[in-house]
Amino acid sequence: MRPMVPVISAVVALSSVARAELLSVKVPVANFRAGPSTSEPVEFTATRYYPVKVLEREGGWCKIKDFEGDLAWVADRLLARVKTIVIKVPRGNVREAPTTSAEVAFRTERGEVFKVLDRKGRWLRVVNVEGAKGWLREDLAWGMKKTEDTGGSS
Asked: 135, 123 in Cβ contact below 8 A?
């Protein structure tokens, strides 16, 4: 019987990972708390479009993990199924077109969030909360499933 325990644990772990989904903050500012209650202390706040991975649900609350690996709880009514990303690198260029030879529209920094409007291969057309739009490579960001390398410009 003893060899069965690791197998069962692995199956349980895989099923909870398979159910994990990416959601985004849909309100101007959301509080992320230490536990599933408004009486729990606020661990951090995040703005509209901030993507999170939902690990668990309990009584109208979601236990989440963010791009930095932080765990917290947030009221599920503050999240939506919107495609968004957060910049995971120190700095990056948002371009006018989906190629590194295109003009730089503006620069972005770690932690900035964007709504994803479109995708072309490994490039994402994005807009920030101020309305600035452009293209950036998916490897600069966290929050979207990666695509297969299509051999396009990077």
From this structure: yes
